[in-house]
Design a protein that fits this description.
The structure is a single chain. It is built from 18 helices and 13 strands. The chain is of the alpha+beta class. Strands 1, 2, 3, 4 and 6 form a 5-stranded antiparallel beta sheet that branches. Strands 5-10-9-7 form a 4-stranded mixed beta sheet. The mean pLDDT is 82.
């Protein structure tokens, strides 16, 4: 894979790159209109999606930063994007061009005043993993194998301008109208800024390790503040398979259940005991050791869950609250789904939509154990998503509904559900987290 000697960091440079990509997308549409004459609509549309996904991803992987992070987030939205986009964008979790050796040396000189070979006993200048915000190198110090994560130059400075560029696209994709939309983009912007603060990530990582390492079948690296700063973070090198590789290769249902239970307990413990959660549940953030332990390795994206959101959000996981009209209506208002300026028609319309969504979304919480390998639950989620995506009434209404906290909480649960399904985890004890002390 080729390496990068520079990354576009200026607003004009990055905008120019996206504009050139837009021109390629335009050409792809011209091809699509031509192919509709000689091929079926389905085949022509598949080719359009494939070509657009490839051109957009090729642009984003050179921009890196929040532009590529958005692609990574979208790769988890299997029920929203066409499969060609999901397949291509998922590469942002593992396969993007790394920084060149000279650029890595320059970054270390800027932040430590030394080259990495002067700081560590041994340092592999070739990246072992390059993702959206940073890349990981292997190093050795005092007999320990270390993972050194280096942030790409200019990532933090370009977040606001990147989001401004993708905002119109996102607003069309998710039917977000201008009114009241800024709070959602501000939430995403703040979280992305936090992810570029490695001092904050170091603190979050050490706290989660301290408070969660007693959970069964779960492991964390140790972290090294002396070899870390706000742009570089050093931790133990953890040996294991990426979770996606484990899912693809594993044929032992007992091991899948063990890893799935560890993953579920980890998330439920954070949410219900710590009132914060690792809000980036994609396969690249987890490994599985040969001993069958789940290893959590990245805590840049943590979501604090305020009490005034936590209480109504989880009260709606109880069917008796969903089916009690007075209680349900009150909770929808507390969660800002139904607003004071809504017409009666809008209230009825969105009340029904969110009843259907919540009834299905909370299915795993209705029994003591749940089989995440059963495709019915996930097929039903996909069908419901498609139903509302095609709803002409919804397209005519203001779709930005609910507290800003929904963005990362819903992302967390959809990501977690997908990971559990990929694990084919059966007989998961839903309330097992209650057995562990905070």
């Amino acid at each position: 894979m080729k390496t990068l000697n520079t990354i576009p960091t200026g607003k004009i440079e990055r905008a120019t790159k996206l504009i050139s990509t837009g021109a390629k997308v335009g050409v792809n549409y011209l091809k699509y209109y031509g192919e509709k004459i000689t091929k079926s609509e389905t085949e022509a549309k598949e080719n359009l999606n494939k070509n657009n996904a490839e051109d957009i991803y090729d642009s984003l992987k050179e921009l890196k930063g929040s532009a590529l992070k958005v692609a990574q987030m979208l790769s988890m939205e299997k029920n929203i994007l066409p499969s060609a986009y999901v397949e291509k964008f998922s590469l942002s979790q593992f396969q993007v061009p790394p920084l060149s050796g000279p650029l890595v040396n320059k970054i270390f000189k800027n932040y430590f005043g030394k080259k990495p070979t002067e700081l560590f006993d041994k340092f592999d200048i070739d990246s072992h993993n390059a993702a959206s915000i940073g890349q990981v190198h292997k190093a050795w110090k005092d007999g320990k194998e270390l993972a050194v994560k280096i942030q790409y130059p200019g990532v933090s400075d370009s977040i606001s301008s990147d989001l401004a560029l993708v905002k119109p696209i996102a607003m069309r994709m998710f039917n977000i109208k201008g009114k009241n939309s800024d709070q959602y983009f501000k939430e995403v912007e703040n979280k992305l800024l936090e992810e570029t603060d490695y001092d904050l990530e170091l603190c979050q990582s050490m706290e989660i390790k301290l408070r969660c390492e007693a959970l069964p079948n779960l492991a964390f690296p140790s972290y090294y503040p002396d070899y870390s700063n706000d742009r570089i973070i050093t931790m133990d090198w953890m040996h294991g398979k990426h979770l996606s590789t484990f899912c693809a290769e594993n044929e032992d249902s007992k091991t899948a259940q063990k890893i799935g239970q560890a993953l579920w307990d980890f998330y439920m413990f954070q949410i219900h005991h710590l009132r914060k959660v690792h809000a980036d549940p994609h396969p690249g953030n987890f490994l599985v050791s040969k001993e069958g332990q789940l290893i959590a390795i990245d805590f840049g994206c943590m979501k604090e869950i305020p009490e005034d959101f936590y209480v109504p959000y989880f009260e709606l996981s109880f069917r008796e609250n969903l089916d009690n009209k007075e209680t349900f209506d009150r909770k929808l208002k507390e969660l800002e789904i139904i607003r004071a300026d809504d017409s009666e028609e809008e209230k009825q319309f969105f009340t029904q939509i969110f009843y259907d969504l919540l009834f299905l979304f909370t299915t795993p919480f209705q029994t003591e154990t749940f089989d995440f390998s059963d495709p019915k639950f996930f097929n039903d989620l996909a069908d419901l998503g498609q139903k509302y995506a095609k709803n002409t009434q919804l397209k005519g209404k203001n779709g930005n509904r609910g507290s800003r906290h929904f963005i990362y909480m819903n992302r967390t649960f959809f990501g977690l559900f997908n990971l559990m399904h990929e694990l084919k985890a059966k007989d998961i004890q839903i309330n097992n987290y209650r057995n562990f002390l905070a």
